[in-house]
Structure formats: C-alpha cells, structure tokens
Write a structure and sequence with these properties.
The protein has 283 residues and is mainly beta. It contains two helices and 14 strands.
Amino acid sequence: MQVEASGGLPVPELEGSRSASRGGGSIRRRRQRRPRRGAGAPQAMAAPAAGAVQRLFEACREVFNGAAPGAVPPPAGIERVKSVLDCITAADVGLTPNMSYFRRVDPRGTPKITYLHLYKCEAFSIGIFCLPSRGVIPLHNHPGMTVFSKLLFGTMHVKSYDWAAQQDTPDVPLQGSRLAKVKADGILTAPCETSVLYPEDGGNMHCFTAQNVCAVLDVLGPPYDDGSGRHCQYYNVSSSAISVGGSMLLPGADRYEFLEESEPPEGFYLVGSTYMGPRILDH
C-alpha cells in the first residue's frame, strides 16, 4: 500500500531516511605488538557481517531486479526473501513499542498509522507500518504484486480475500460487487512466520486491525505505481454469500463475501515519517 500525507495509500517517499555520517574526533595511534617468538603470522580480520536490513535489501535486489513487472518470483526467490524476513526482529530496525509512532493522541478517535520508508526502486520497496492499539489498515488490494509481511511485534487481526474463481461466481451477482473468497480471518501474534501474498492467490486483498501496538515490515515487488496500472484500491464488504451455485457453505468450508470498491474510510489517516534504523547501502 502507498502512503499520502492526507491519509490515503500511496505514500510519499521520505528521502530523509538516515544517511551515512562519519564522526569527527582525534584518533590515538597504538603501538603494534610484535608477535611472540614461535607464534604464527597474524591472521587477517574477517569483514563484519552485513546487518539484517542490508541482507534483506540484497535478497530483494537479487530476486526482484530484472524480473518482469507483475511476474511472481520463482519459489527459490520467494523462500530467499522470506527466510531473511523470518529472522528479522524489531531491534534490527531500531523499533520498540514505546516509541511515539505507537501512541494514541486521541483515545476516542481512530489512531493514525505511521509509515517508515526504508527503500524504493522500480522493482521493489521496503517499509514499516506502525499501528497504535486499535489502529486499522482498511481492506485494500495489491494488483500484480507479490507482498511479504512480517509482524515484528504485537497482535493483530488479519482478514484477507482472493477473487472467486469463475465457476464459483453466482449467476446474478450483487450490482457493483464482486465475489471474493475469504482466505484468512484470524489473529496473528508475533513472533510468527512471514506471510506472502501473490497477484492471484494468498489473500491479495487484506485488512489489519491492531489488538495492541504492532509493527509490520512490508516488502512489495513491484511497488504501487498508478502509471503502470498498480493502483491501490479500497473495498467494503457489501454482503455475505450464504450460498454459491445453489450449495450451502457449511462451517469449516470455503467462505465467500461480496466486495465493492470504495474510497478510503473516513478517519483513516496514514502519515509518512523518517526511518531512523540501520541504513541500506545501495552499492
């Protein structure tokens, strides 16, 4: 999803993401010790391992760059990005639940959602959604996109849909609505595995409702782009389908609901802020 200062998804990218800096100050020279007699030659120092955020960037660059827009990466590529995300923690991106992003300014109103921009190019984007308690990211889609979502901390309710297959569509659909299959409808609590959605499967349309303060690290490949037809569309649930094709939907069986396009809900407010965690080096 994209972010706008006015509260809709598309999001302005914040080029204020932390840049490299070199501190000043004096440097003391220390006399190099000579190796003890009989000792072997000193070993070369190993290069420091890349941080978690940098490893994620490099995995995304290898998996998404060069791929056709809207093309789903191969299974090995999906697993590569997912395995890196599975290991990332809130500490790796410099987040804690007591930060200002997660505070409710007005306890009676709908809390604003904050988006932290880490990186964006034509092939993919990386960002974090910060949700105060009872914060809601309304039902929206991801056209032609493969999306990874990692819940860094907190508990949230997730509901997601995929469009129903042609054979499941009733003869007389509700006017202005389209039938969708419920893919997920439940509670997710960190720590948990990264979820992956695809252009046609995996819950391409979803909504999040924070049960307490939550942070979600998102990777979109490719990102939203109105000019390329990847526009973020919102939906309302217009009606539940009690039966499809004359068959009753029994408990535990597939569930279907009619969705209709809508404007962002009144009171939904999404703002961009500067990411202050470890920076990404784009060599």
